[in-house]
């Protein structure tokens, strides 16, 4: 038996099961069905594979911070993997497993292996983990015990840890310290504001966690905004949402409000008046928000998993690790983009999706985009799509983002994205029927500029024409943006054009019947929803520009013509 170098136990536990190995990271939110344990990401190699009882091996996770809640629910219902094995650092799923052990006495082993041991174990059909030993047909390895960081706590940290500030803060500090240990952090740092992602009703486990902490009398210590939730909080009953879903989803939101969180209910907190300043140290969750904050605003936040976001808000303290540290914000890959001219708005989500594919586990420096002069909304679309295919909490765009002139790691590699790559990705995200029944706008939540652009495009397109009666157009947006739209007449123009505008929920949490049940195919201008939508909704989802979405709203069909800058036909001509 060998001793694994650079391998270690992250969380203790015992497991036996078949090995399910993949070289591509997976987001559990939007990628795994919590009701079955099956992979539902239609773009992932494991699509259709059951993870229940498996030793799941992948380099790291990617995508949504809500993955921790999905994993917790899978563990509590007995549908989860038997163990998780990574080859790189991973926080989101690790936190879900940590909560299961810490709060619910349901331990599940999490292991990090060296590249060689990861390769050997991935070739096995089955494996067992017991007392720190991995045994399989191809590997028999004793792993070192979990690493314990020499955490330097302040007097106030120790006071919270001892329960002086109440049992809620004590539980939160215990979880923060455990995560700091697995991340290798040596101290905690102050953060100025938080953003909660765990308020989405991804599973009953999210509600169990939040109400358990709220019932302990916990209160946030820093200004804390809330992500989109799973229902229109004031109207879900009138909208026909089943009480079996609507009631717990509303209770989940109420639990966070009870703990002092601000009921902003938006996945675009960077559009709020409270958006952080350059260099501000914050603690945000929700992948697109984290990436935008680091990349575009120049603020500093790790991609905190669901549940850890609340713990940090309750204490005002976060592990000093990851991109809180200067050295970890350096680019480790340079990507040269062959940017066509001109580009339209569909270019930005597509290029974000491709950048994430090229840099699934590191911060890239992207060159070649500055000449296209991206707007804030273009960067919003890019960051959101990047977050679906990369685990990285940020990227740099040369000539555009505030830290793009910073140091590049001396060992950084270099790759390119060609127009041919864009064509291939366009085809991948445009796999669907010609007829569409739903236009989906607002993933992430639409800005006021996006709402105005949609209203203007529809008003122009409808001159002398009629909306197709079988196509719904739905926009999701934050309450602040909806208030702006109401004040300047945009909301009235949208409603005049037959557009439904919903607050609070977003496309990654929308459910029937708000999501029209008769829908067979969707068209969207969001790379994020084009990726997650098929698995979450069970429908075909096609990516398009805003103008093509408007045309589909009127004709009911995807227009069989060249898709702008791509030179690719949306349908065979």
TrEMBL record:
Residues 151-551 form the Phosphomevalonate dehydratase large subunit-like domain. GO terms for molecular function: lyase activity. The keyword Thylakoid does not apply. Transmembrane segments: none annotated. The keyword Lyase applies. InterPro entries: Acnase/IPM_dHydase_lsu_aba_1/3 (IPR015931), AcnX (IPR012047), Aconitase_4Fe-4S_dom (IPR036008), PMDh-L-like_dom (IPR007506), PMDh-S-like_dom (IPR002840). Residues 26-100 form the Phosphomevalonate dehydratase small subunit-like domain. Keywords: Iron, Lyase. PANTHER family: DUF521 DOMAIN PROTEIN (AFU_ORTHOLOGUE AFUA_6G00490) (PTHR36577). This is DUF521 domain-containing protein. It comes from Rhizobium phaseoli.
